[in-house]
């Protein structure tokens, strides 16, 4: 009972904590990972659809709230409706990833779904007009972005926890398809719903948001181990201020300033850019000095994480502004040239861009499956090169193109991005320590979202720079040639080119907006021609081509940079591991700051055992993990790294202590074993065509010393002393010396139960805290257990049944009472050493004195007939 009680006091809090906060994937069943995938895919799809759905619907939204976004006083509304969502998610996503690591990824993800659903409802019920409505919409779009940041920051980490390494590429690939395809689908959905009723653009997200919130709350469970840490408030503040300042500076840099076509020389823009960069430098300094940084800069020591994020940043820079350029190209030039009115162009622009979405939807999941088998470096590199080729083809495509050639190029672009996206995401997430997956995913999303905003600014700036050289002269010449007064034509030609771009982007007739009252002074046929479908597209074709050239060359360069970075992620490695659960509770000792010695396979050491057999199954590394007493160690994590230091796979030991990793290619690998409470161990193994087997014996750092003695102080020599952990496993054993002393070493750090069991004595158990810094001292007192038995007989020598036998100690106190059986026998147990008096009460009492020595069994027969002393036998 003492041992069980001690164990219960150790185990109960652990069970309560685990069931209250975290689950294992095994407990949730094999279907849980697919539930996690479907729910997070819905969340990512919603978040990314809403990042782009307003782009095509902006004309209908502004008409609905009765605002002309091209007026100089309203341009800020246009910019923040376009970019507010992206700016907010870029700033907050990394902090929300850290919150997921600290307080539970599923909890933060559920909160994001709820925020997203509520903000969608409030956007859909907008009832105001004018500037009030614009501010209301922008404000709730920002809140919607906050919900999106929660979803984006934690979805990848939830999937990485739920899926084993060998299926992670597929899962992240499908999730990545939703993330990027959503931005394309948003264009089509916005184009379809906007003309019907602009409120539907926001209302469409409400049922999915409500359903997703309830579904996530009911079905998703935290399978990650919470990491107690403090929030890096100074880091969050400086990062948010610095990044917002930079992004705001870029946003306003594309607007005209004074006589300049763009605002890059504006004091406000320069202050935002320079000040933002300085604050971000301060942020970087802070991150190197705080205990729990927002940006874990040590993650950049991981090669796959560093180069993978560099490639993702380059890809996002190339992809982010492409949508805007294609929308302007289609809406401002190509669609009007081919018979579409300016009012129809937003919808058809989204439809004609579908080949890009199709290419991505096809390539991303396929590349995810292939990544699980051969690694992601080659696929990601090929994807970036293919994307660069697609930009090169767009560069040489004439402005008035054949649509099928255009569609084929967009398909190639989508295929390239799909080939890149899934492998890149899998490589980055697989490289992260488990307890840093939330923060790492948030950092990746921050780079991606920030790059999207930067890309928009770069593309617009390059387009405006290209237009500003030739557009004024072309406009002036074209307008005067068709009857517009010279002073009016010169005034229009002097207007900033950004107005022309925004008009084309919104599907407005730019000439009608620019000429205004001048049209009333022209003949009807001239006015009709100038505002028709052909004049502006034909006029702007040449200047627009100049702007596209600069933008597409920028995209080609960054895609090639992304290809180089993808190649340096590392050699393709099979992510093979028979891992029943990839919980974040187990992390490499080296990543946690512990030093481990890498020992060759034949190094003599108490920690390593020689392999049980020379070979294993082909392509498999296997073995067992045990304590120095031979007990299996369940739940230990075995990490396999290649000769280049890159992680190849991970496995978790089962209840029997056995582990196995399959699908490993021939070569030399390092095995690193970590288990809570035990010292880490490492060994080198060579896998040939037959595989390899290696067993480990793990030693803990705990030491317990003590003495076993009897109640009288006599030491007990040669008795066994056992140490058991909270699960009842024997983790150590020793034998007492002549002075009763013992020493237990190599115990797992933490609470252990020490038990001594001596024949004829009660076992004694004590729970102590085993630590390496100072050995725990234990004194075990074993108490002897005496037994007294005999027979009560009558005058005829026959045994007397039901005679009462009472024994009392030397002080006359009754110790025990019993009745004889049918043959007169009695037996009394659990008596302490000492002198007792045996008394019967069936006949006239007969009294006998008896000495009971330690550990002895003594027989006392009482003859009621003669009253004589009976012989005693021990």
TrEMBL record:
<feature type="transmembrane region" description="Helical">
    <location>
        <begin position="307"/>
        <end position="330"/>
    </location>
</feature>
<dbReference type="Pfam" id="PF07690">
    <property type="entry name" value="MFS_1"/>
</dbReference>
<feature type="transmembrane region" description="Helical">
    <location>
        <begin position="77"/>
        <end position="96"/>
    </location>
</feature>
<dbReference type="GO" id="GO:0005886">
    <property type="term" value="C:plasma membrane"/>
</dbReference>
<feature type="transmembrane region" description="Helical">
    <location>
        <begin position="200"/>
        <end position="221"/>
    </location>
</feature>
<feature type="transmembrane region" description="Helical">
    <location>
        <begin position="550"/>
        <end position="570"/>
    </location>
</feature>
<feature type="transmembrane region" description="Helical">
    <location>
        <begin position="266"/>
        <end position="286"/>
    </location>
</feature>
<feature type="transmembrane region" description="Helical">
    <location>
        <begin position="108"/>
        <end position="128"/>
    </location>
</feature>
<keyword id="KW-0812">Transmembrane</keyword>
<dbReference type="InterPro" id="IPR008969">
    <property type="entry name" value="CarboxyPept-like_regulatory"/>
</dbReference>
<feature type="transmembrane region" description="Helical">
    <location>
        <begin position="451"/>
        <end position="468"/>
    </location>
</feature>
<dbReference type="Pfam" id="PF13620">
    <property type="entry name" value="CarboxypepD_reg"/>
</dbReference>
<dbReference type="InterPro" id="IPR013784">
    <property type="entry name" value="Carb-bd-like_fold"/>
</dbReference>
<keyword id="KW-0813">Transport</keyword>
<feature type="transmembrane region" description="Helical">
    <location>
        <begin position="403"/>
        <end position="420"/>
    </location>
</feature>
<protein>
    <recommendedName>
        <fullName>Major facilitator superfamily (MFS) profile domain-containing protein</fullName>
    </recommendedName>
</protein>
<dbReference type="InterPro" id="IPR036259">
    <property type="entry name" value="MFS_trans_sf"/>
</dbReference>
<dbReference type="GO" id="GO:0030246">
    <property type="term" value="F:carbohydrate binding"/>
</dbReference>
<keyword id="KW-1133">Transmembrane helix</keyword>
<dbReference type="InterPro" id="IPR011701">
    <property type="entry name" value="MFS"/>
</dbReference>
<feature type="transmembrane region" description="Helical">
    <location>
        <begin position="34"/>
        <end position="57"/>
    </location>
</feature>
<feature type="transmembrane region" description="Helical">
    <location>
        <begin position="233"/>
        <end position="254"/>
    </location>
</feature>
<keyword id="KW-1003">Cell membrane</keyword>
<feature type="domain" description="Major facilitator superfamily (MFS) profile">
    <location>
        <begin position="36"/>
        <end position="511"/>
    </location>
</feature>
<feature type="transmembrane region" description="Helical">
    <location>
        <begin position="488"/>
        <end position="508"/>
    </location>
</feature>
<feature type="transmembrane region" description="Helical">
    <location>
        <begin position="134"/>
        <end position="158"/>
    </location>
</feature>
<dbReference type="GO" id="GO:0022857">
    <property type="term" value="F:transmembrane transporter activity"/>
</dbReference>
<keyword id="KW-0472">Membrane</keyword>
<feature type="transmembrane region" description="Helical">
    <location>
        <begin position="378"/>
        <end position="397"/>
    </location>
</feature>
<feature type="transmembrane region" description="Helical">
    <location>
        <begin position="350"/>
        <end position="371"/>
    </location>
</feature>
<feature type="transmembrane region" description="Helical">
    <location>
        <begin position="170"/>
        <end position="194"/>
    </location>
</feature>
<dbReference type="InterPro" id="IPR020846">
    <property type="entry name" value="MFS_dom"/>
</dbReference>
């Amino acid at each position: 009972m003492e041992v069980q009680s001690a164990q219960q006091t150790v185990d109960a809090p652990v069970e309560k904590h685990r069931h209250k906060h975290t689950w294992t994937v095994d407990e949730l069943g094999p279907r849980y990972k697919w539930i996690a995938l479907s729910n997070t895919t819905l969340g990512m799809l919603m978040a990314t659809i809403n990042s782009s759905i307003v782009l095509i619907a902006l004309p209908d939204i502004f008409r609905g709230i009765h605002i002309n976004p091209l007026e100089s006083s309203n341009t800020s509304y246009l910019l923040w409706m376009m970019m507010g969502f992206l700016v907010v998610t870029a700033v907050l996503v990394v902090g929300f990833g850290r919150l997921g690591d600290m307080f539970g990824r599923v909890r933060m993800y559920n909160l994001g779904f709820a925020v997203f659903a509520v903000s969608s409802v409030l956007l859909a019920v907008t009832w105001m007009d004018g500037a009030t409505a614009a501010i209301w919409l922008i404000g709730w779009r920002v809140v919607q972005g906050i919900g999106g940041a929660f979803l984006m920051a934690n979805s990848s980490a939830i999937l990485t926890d739920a899926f084993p390494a060998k299926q992670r590429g597929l899962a992240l690939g499908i999730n990545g398809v939703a993330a990027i395809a959503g931005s394309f689908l948003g264009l089509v959905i916005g184009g379809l719903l906007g003309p019907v009723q602009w409120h539907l653009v926001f209302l469409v997200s409400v049922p999915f948001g409500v359903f997703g919130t309830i579904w996530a709350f009911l079905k998703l469970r935290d399978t990650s181990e919470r990491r107690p840490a403090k929030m890096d408030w100074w880091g969050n503040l400086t990062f948010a201020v610095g990044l917002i300042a930079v992004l705001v500076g870029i946003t306003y840099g594309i607007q005209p300033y004074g006589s300049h076509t763009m605002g890059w020389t504006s004091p406000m823009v320069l202050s935002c850019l320079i000040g933002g960069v300085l604050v971000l430098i301060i942020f970087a300094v802070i991150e190197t000095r705080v205990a729990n940084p927002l940006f874990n800069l040590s993650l950049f020591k991981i090669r796959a994480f560093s180069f993978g994020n560099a490639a993702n940043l380059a890809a996002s820079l190339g992809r982010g502004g492409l949508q805007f350029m294609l929308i302007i190209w289609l809406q401002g030039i190509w669609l009007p040239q081919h018979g579409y009115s300016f009012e129809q162009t937003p919808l058809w622009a989204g439809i004609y861009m579908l080949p890009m979405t199709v290419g991505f939807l096809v390539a991303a999941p396929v590349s995810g499956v292939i990544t699980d088998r051969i690694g992601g470096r080659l696929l990601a590199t090929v994807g970036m090169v293919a994307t660069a080729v697609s930009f090169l083809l767009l560069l040489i495509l004439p402005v008035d193109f054949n649509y099928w050639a255009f569609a084929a190029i967009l398909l190639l672009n989508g295929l390239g991005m799909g080939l890149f996206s899934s492998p890149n995401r899998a490589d980055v997430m697989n490289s992260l320590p488990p307890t840093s997956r939330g923060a790492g995913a948030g950092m990746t999303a921050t780079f991606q979202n920030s790059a999207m905003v930067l890309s928009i600014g770069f593309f617009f700036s390059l387009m405006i720079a290209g237009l500003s050289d030739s557009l004024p002269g072309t406009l002036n010449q074209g307008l005067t040639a068709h009857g517009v007064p010279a002073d009016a034509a010169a005034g229009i030609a002097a207007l900033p080119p950004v107005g022309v771009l925004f008009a084309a982007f919104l599907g407005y007739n730019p000439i009608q907006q620019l000429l205004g009252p001048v049209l009333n002074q022209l003949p009807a046929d001239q006015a009709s021609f100038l505002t028709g479908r052909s004049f502006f597209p034909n006029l702007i074709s040449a200047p627009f081509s100049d702007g596209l050239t600069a933008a597409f060359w920028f995209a080609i360069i960054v895609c090639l940079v992304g290809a180089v970075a993808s190649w340096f992620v590392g050699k393709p490695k099979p992510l093979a591991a028979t891992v029943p659960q990839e919980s974040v509770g187990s992390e490499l000792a080296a990543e946690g700051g512990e030093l481990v010695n890498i020992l060759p396979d034949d190094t003599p050491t108490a920690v390593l055992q020689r392999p049980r057999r020379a070979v294993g199954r082909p392509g498999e590394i296997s073995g067992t993990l045990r304590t120095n007493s031979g007990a299996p160690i369940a739940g230990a994590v075995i990490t396999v790294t290649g000769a280049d230091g890159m992680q190849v796979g991970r496995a978790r030991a089962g209840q029997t202590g056995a582990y196995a990793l399959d699908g490993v290619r021939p070569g030399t690998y390092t095995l690193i074993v970590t288990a809570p409470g035990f010292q880490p161990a490492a060994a080198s193994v060579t896998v040939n065509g037959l595989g390899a087997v290696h067993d480990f014996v793990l030693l803990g750092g705990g030491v317990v010393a003590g003495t076993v003695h009897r109640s009288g102080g006599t030491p007990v020599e040669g008795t066994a002393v056992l140490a058991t952990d909270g699960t009842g496993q024997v983790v150590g054993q020793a034998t007492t010396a002549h002075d009763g002393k013992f020493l237990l070493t190599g115990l797992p750090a933490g609470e252990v139960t020490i038990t001594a069991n001596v024949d004829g004595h009660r076992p004694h158990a004590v729970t102590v805290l085993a630590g390496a810094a100072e050995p725990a001292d234990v004194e075990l007192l074993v108490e002897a257990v005496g037994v007294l038995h005999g027979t009560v007989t009558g005058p005829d020598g026959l045994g007397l049944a039901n005679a009462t036998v009472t024994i009392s100690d030397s002080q006359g106190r009754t110790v025990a009472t019993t009745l004889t059986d049918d043959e007169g026998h009695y037996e009394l147990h659990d008596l302490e050493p000492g002198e007792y008096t045996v008394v019967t009460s069936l006949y006239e009492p007969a009294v006998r004195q008896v000495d009971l020595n330690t550990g002895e069994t003594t027989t006392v027969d009482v003859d009621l007939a003669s009253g004589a002393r009976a012989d005693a036998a021990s």
